[in-house]
Amino acid sequence: MSSAGTRKRRTELAPVNSEDSAQNTPVVKRVRGNHGCSTRSGVHRSPNENTITEDYSMLSADSEPEDTVEEECDIAGRLVSIELEDFMCHKHLFVKFDEDRNCTYIGGSNGSGKSALFAAINLGLGGKGRSNDRGGSAAAYIREGTNRARVTIVLTNEGIGKHPKYWDQIVVRRIINQKSGSTYELKSRCTEPEKEETVSKKKGDLDEICRRFNIDLENPVVWMSQDRSRQFLQELQPKKLFNMFMEASKLGNCYQQCAESRAELHDIQIKLEDFKTVLKDLNVDYHNCKKRLLATIKIREKNEELQQIECDMEWVPLKEDKELIVLCEKEILEYEKKINDLNDKKNAIDESLEELQSELNTTVVSEDFMTRKQELEETVQSKKAERQRFFDERADLKTKIGRVVNLRTSTERQLALLSEQLRNMRGIDYEEQKDKEQRLKGELERVMDEEERCRDLQAVAQENCINMRRDCDQAEEELKRVKMLLRNTKDQVETIERDKRRMEDIRRDRESRFGRDVPRIKQIIAQNAHMFDRPPIGPVGAFVSVADRRWTDVVEYVLKRQMGTFLVGSGQDRKTFYDLLDRNRIEYKPTVVCQRFHDRRLNIARFEPDESFRTVLRAITVSDDNVYNNLVEDCGAAGVLLLDSDDEARRLMSQSPPRNASKAITPNFGEAFPVSAGRPYRFYSNTPYRARFLVEDDGESGSRRDFEAESREAKAKYTNISQELGEANRIFTELAQRLKSAENENQKIGSSIERCAERREQIVPELQKMSLEVDVEMLGNLEQEIAEKKLNMERIKKEYEDLREELINKEQHMDRVRLEVSELEEDIRGHIRQEKELKRQRAETRNQINEKKRKATACEQRISEYEAKSSAKEQEALNYRASITAKEEKLVQLCAERNVPPLDVAKVPPRDELEDAKRRLQEELRKYEEALGGPPMTDELLKEKKEKVHTLKNQVEAYESLVDRLRQLFLNRYKQLQTLVAHLTYKLQLSFVRQLHLRNYGGTLDVDFKNRSLSIHVQTHKHYTDPAPSQKKSQDLRGLSGGERSYATASFVIALWECIECPFRLLDEFDVFMDMINRRIVMESLVHVATERYSSYQFFFFTPQGIQDIQDKQKVQIFRMPQVRR
């Protein structure tokens, strides 16, 4: 509910100590003893108007106030009967109260339904379900297994405060339904004769009856339920006692109404100031109207001058038409001259065209020239074919020469080798050579066996290295994984601790979620606001909320850079801001953005995407206009699209990105950038982000988290992972050492293989060399083979010389053919040049002919155009003459109608001069119209403005007088409230002391309005009867025994009853903590108070204990609850 609505509802209550209140409130006359004294004695107002200090000298423990007796009278609103149907544990219960006995004790064992009867009285009169500590709603009071409950209460309507619309009794019936709420029915009943009549079925009428009878359904003193009794007896703290006194006596409501009246009076004063502002504006408007009247007169004069100029401008077209006729005649003469010149030029072009055509006919290529050219081309083709044949034959000869050269080279090499072998064989010891060969072959076999064995070992070692390297890589990956898991777990522990500290800060102040120092920073800004041109605004995130929680994480991911930012209006304010933070030792210095404060939102409709797309700016609610502008300018929130899926983002931004869209983001935090002319489409998959600033229920979710358990679990996980890391590190170290050993072994085997290979490479050439060294028998064959090779060599040389000579002859013949081809091609090129020259000459002549034809055609076209223009000008001159005649007749007729002589056209000023004069007049007229600023002002309207100012001035003076009177009335009312407070306080103290005296107790009751506390001090009989004042000991309630404390509490409740005017009171299980003696005394006191002092009111006491101790039973109605049928 808004504050205005609350103020309106509360101001409808009856004013304190007003005449209306005195008429509508029942008054009970009392007869007091001699101990009574004036309520004004002993009351001193402190300088603070809301504080009253009491003088308790008259209420000391030695004083013994006498009892007072109420003068019995009838009061409307007492209970006659109550009937319950399907209410809580009662299927049906009817109780009729004795009208001659105002005190009723209702007894019964626990579970017999006493509290149900208590709650039924409250609910039946329109009370709320939560007011009776039995359920959250009225439907909770329906008996189990049924759908509705009914409560019927009959009230008296006789005596003081009776309602004029009803007869002797008022019947209130409330039906509570399980699903459809409650219905009410109010009936008027007449006992003699018996008849009933339904008056209303509205809850508001029932509330009006309760207000008239002073039945307060929320007053805890009137409705002392079972739980309230226990809580009241156990927690008697001064603050709570004071609140109970203020609530029971309604003084709190009085003070609240007083504060609201003060606020309304302040609002009236503001409205009066607004009226004064309006009066000032009207005075200014009146003086402006004077200026506007002067401007109206000037406008009228300038309009007359302007009208005269417009009349002169009507003759300007006539003058201009005559001038145009002269121009047309001049242009016609010029066109005729140009036509004659063009005809002469065309004749010259036709003569030149005939000469060029004859020259073109003579320039033709002859047939002999073309035949000679064709013969030359055929001869060149035959020579080229012959030349190609020689090229092929030369290539074959070069190939044969190459083969012969290769054969000669090979033969020479073999011959040299055989000669060298022959020389070597002539000096060799063949026996020694065979032994050496056998030794080398044995060594070669051993070396090859060793090499093969080492290669087998190397294969096994390499396979072991590969397996161990794979195991080592797996161990290293596992080690990296465990390290990463350990880092993540450590980050998790730190995150939990950080969240725990953050939740603690947020519980103290919600803005702490933006940083621990943010509340302190805002306090510093508030305290030093005068040092800024405009106080800084921030943090930005405090002004932002997200309507759809599905997008909270994504929106904060986009705006997270701005969440803790503060906004300032100038560079000087930024410097002042940081200086204040340094001066107050603020370690955390937030980011500050300097921008101009417009105090209105920027119009960005042209720069936003289409309304069918959801953007970050459309997904949030910003409560400050300057923060809104910052999010638009710095974050570009208006151009960031929120799309439902990554596929949609890819498709939209790559094919047809919306206008003004800077990027798109999805709930999976995928970012898609649009394709454009300068940049390609891009898509990024980002790490998920969890919102920390924009979540609404962060404090509640934090309160539900068990940070200690999470921290213990994370630390235990960290310890286990640390042990796992040690084991993984050990395994990795062992595998690395084993891998290194295996690689060293493999390297040694490789070295052995290399040594064997080197030795094998040394032995094999020696064996090959020995294989060439044969015995003496082979020597003869070798010499014979050398002789054959030399003969073959001579034959090869002879073949080479023959081929070489043939190649030289072929090349000479090819040179002769090449020369002949060159000469023929030169002749052909000469013929081609001559042919091109002839074609060029013919093309040039043809171009000249075309150019001449084009010029002739252009001359004909221009002649036609000039003839058409000349005809048009002649027609235009005729039209002008006809127009001049018509215009002149029309202007003469207008002058006759205006009774002015026609103007001499020759004397009419030029159009430029008239337009300049008109422009000057219009400029002056515009200035006067700007000074006018609206419709023309008249003397009557100015007089009306003056009368309005005078009337408003008189009203403002009358309102000022009224406000002064209201302020005085408010002060008088407030003084009456202070008197009422003093009276009720004294009444409470007097009643409390009187009740203590019934048991020979003494004590005081101190009410401190400044500290809002109510302190009770009691002197029991063992201290009270001591004649020495110095030996008397005053104790607060904590120092008393259980029974004494219960009696003092009961005395306080009885004292509170004297401060209220409800026609009945209910007290449930008041004796829960009393011993038998104090219970008997309290019961007698309650009966005495009810029957002797407040016989006009009803009292209902509910107790589960026995009530046989009541002595004066003829004045008390005792009702025992029947056995409940469940």
UniProtKB/TrEMBL annotation:
GO terms for biological process: double-strand break repair via homologous recombination. Its main location: nucleus. Residues 79-1101 form the RecF/RecN/SMC N-terminal domain. Keywords: ATP-binding, Chromosome, Coiled coil, DNA damage, DNA recombination, DNA repair, Nucleotide-binding, Nucleus. Transmembrane segments: none annotated. Residues 1-50, 1020-1039 are annotated as: Disordered. Residues 318-393, 430-506, 704-876, 911-969 form a coiled coil. Residues 1-10 have a biased composition (Basic residues). GO terms for molecular function: ATP binding; ATP hydrolysis activity; damaged DNA binding; single-stranded DNA binding. It is found in: Chromosome; Nucleus. GO terms for cellular component: nucleus; site of double-strand break; Smc5-Smc6 complex. InterPro entries: P-loop_NTPase (IPR027417), RecF/RecN/SMC_N (IPR003395). Belongs to the SMC family. SMC6 subfamily. This is RecF/RecN/SMC N-terminal domain-containing protein. It comes from Steinernema hermaphroditum. The lineage of its organism: Eukaryota, Metazoa, Ecdysozoa, Nematoda, Chromadorea.
